Amino acid sequence: MSIQYDQSTRTYHLQSRNVSYVMQVVKDGYLAHLYWGRKIRGTAIPDMMPKSYRPSFNPNPFPEDETFSLDTLPQEYPGYGTSDFRSPAYQVRLANGTSVTEFKVVSHRIVAGKPALEGLPSVYAESEQEAETLEVVLEDEAAKLRLIAGYTVFRDSDAIARNVRIENFGEATVRVQRLLSASVDLPHANYEAVHLWGTWARERHVARRALMPGVQAIESRRGSSSHMHNPFYALVTPSTTEDSGEVYAMNLVYSGNFLAQAEVDQFSSTRLSIGLNPFDFEWQLGGGESFQSPEAILVFSGEGLGAMSRTFHKLYRTRLCRGTFRDKERPILINNWEATYFDFDSEKLMKIVRAAKELGLELFVLDDGWFGKRNDDKRSLGDWFVNTDKLPEGLDGLAARVNAEGLSFGLWVEPEMISPDSDLYRAHPDWCLHVPDHRRTLARTQLILDFSRQDVRDYIVERLTDIFSSAPLTYVKWDMNRNMTEIGSAQLPPERQRETAHRYMLGLYEVMEKITSRFPNILFESCSGGGGRFDAGMLHYMPQTWTSDDTDAIERLKIQYGTSLVYPISSMGSHVSEVPNHQVHRVTSLTTRGHVAMSGNFGYELDLSKMSAEEKAEVARQVQEYKELRGLVQQGDFYRLLSPFEGNETAWQFVSEDRSEAYAIFVRTLAVPNEPLARLRLKGLDPEKNYELKGTGRVYGGDELMYVGLPVPKIEGDFGSLAFYFSEAK
Ligand code: DGJ
């Protein structure tokens, strides 16, 4: 890892183990992008910018050099208004009403380590030796504005972290209307875009399509990163597969409105960018003030999508997630939501707990419905006081009973919400997001607390602190069940209303920072109707996320496969639920449900007490197996073998860091008559090692498993699955 600045060519060369990223200061201070890709030594790169005469429709700030135009120069942080007509990375409305600005490099500094981003989630370095950061300072002297573009490279990762801060060193207030986190101009347009899309219960399906001329974008305007699009966008060369080909990926460490786009211009070069969504956004920046963009993580892989994912996984697992549970094995849980919904009392819950104990589970999670008058989803959010009709012994009494059975106790909350039918709303009707004279649109009969307000945040922190201190909790599920509408705050003046959505996120991050540091021994899992806020921002505070409200094993193949493009396995909650499945009414075997759920943070979400003896025996076996495997699943390297988006078969695999253990799952969705002979080729093993397939005594060479492929035994019926657990043969 290193960051070199060559004064003679004014070139910055960022290098990690396998990747180079090169920028150059050109003319009187423009920051040009020279290269991002496989590591190079940097012999002649400063002279390798192609040049060509440009017609007058590409205006030229330097008449003496007809090869130069900002409209064609590959740039690092482009603006609009002075001759680049492509999508800008930033836009600021000045006090004079115009938004013409032009930033030139004035200085830089290179520091050891990685400075934190104030008030925002980010990846971090644990020591100064682990990372190096370049801060390039650009100024528009006339506008009295400064941009500080931050770039961090890591010793142990091929990711690059980027962010931008804007400072107003003048006196007049300006309005920041766009401040993306990263923009890169790539030299051609022969790419396909890969991103993740979907809806509630069908999140993060993989989309892949060839780039076309013009802008192609994904975004969220929903106030959260959303079920519909994930803040991840990658460009891949057309032949790119899991194991080969070039990938340029960006992921935003942010949980609110975002924009990610690729613009193919007139000369078929491509501008890839990501950041806060400029839509409905504006930030007043007074004299002496600064505004910080969220962080973007850039990953280049020359070895396909699999290597890209493993770079994201390792960085996020070890240097985005924090706290006691970052490196700890996660407990096997039983959650009562699909078992009881709102219809429970302590006796009913204890039946489930006792069954869970018998089967070896470790944590009982009490989901929605334990507080206020919450017997359905129409009321009481905000009234965070235990419902003693349902739980006469209180939370502490119930936790004590659960603990006495040998399980730890976890709780669901939805702290960002308020029901109109709640004591909190009756006392503070202005505490929700709303705008004057307009309807307050309900979703799931609830409104959103205005987390841009300090008084609201303080109240929630106090209530949560009370609840979380009132019982021996070891786990909290933090839910959020609607998108934002009427985004306005009673406390902000008119000219600041368009700051509300981002201020909300900053407020949420402040609350989560306070609560998670106040309760370091609680494992937090975020949730937003499943995966409506499955993003790197949330993972900075809460190391795992409820992947989807869809618990059907076959639906989960696509959801978990897509999620794995970016997010580590240790971040994905996945549970075995009842059949027929509550979301799609499909019937799958307990074995298949187990295999798919064991490919994440494992748990159950059904009434264990109602299972047959045979089913219970299978659950006990799964629990035992997962206890042996979870280190490998949660901390191992992940390889995708067969894609559910491409065929009838899905397979993936976990390999331990020392390559002594591997675990593979194979699922055939529909039965095939007179099926072809199938071999499953594994990945990531040591070709020199021999591996024993558990339960068979058979030993295979790592080379054979990877290059020949394991013969797949016959699977009977639809939705069948197999698991293969290998350990190094002694
Ligand atoms: C949505 C979550 O995704 C579910 O798992 C469950 O917690 C419900 N909310 C409870 O209301």
Report what the structure shows:
This protein is of the alpha+beta class and 730 residues long. It folds into three domains: 2-319, alpha-galactosidase from lactobacil brevis (Beta-galactosidase, Chain A, domain 5), CATH 2.70.98; 333-491 and 545-556 and 579-624, TIM Barrel; 642-728, Immunoglobulin-like (Sandwich), CATH 2.60.40.1180. The strands form seven sheets. Strands 6, 7, 8, 9, 11, 12, 14, 15, 19 and 20 form a ten-stranded antiparallel sheet that branches. An eight-stranded parallel barrel has the order 21-22-23-26-27-28-29-30, surrounded by six helices. Strands 5, 10, 13, 16, 17 and 18 form a six-stranded antiparallel sheet that branches. The structure holds (2R,3S,4R,5S)-2-(hydroxymethyl)piperidine-3,4,5-triol. (2R,3S,4R,5S)-2-(hydroxymethyl)piperidine-3,4,5-triol binds next to loops.
Sheet with most strands: 10 strands, antiparallel
Known CATH architecture of the largest domain: Distorted Sandwich
Percent in strands = 25-35%
Q: Tell me, what's the shape? A: globular
Number of helices: 12
Q: How far do the termini sit from each other?
A: 37 Å
Q: Indicate the low-confidence ranges by residue numbers.
A: none
List the ions, cofactors and other small molecules found in this model. Answer: (2R,3S,4R,5S)-2-(hydroxymethyl)piperidine-3,4,5-triol
CA radius of gyration is 27 Å
What fraction, in percent, of the residue positions are helical?
Answer: 10-25%
| Estimated structural class | alpha+beta
Mean pLDDT level: 97
| Overall structural domain count | 3
CATH superfamily of the largest domain: alpha-galactosidase from lactobacil brevis
Q: What name does the CATH topology of the largest domain carry?
A: Beta-galactosidase, Chain A, domain 5
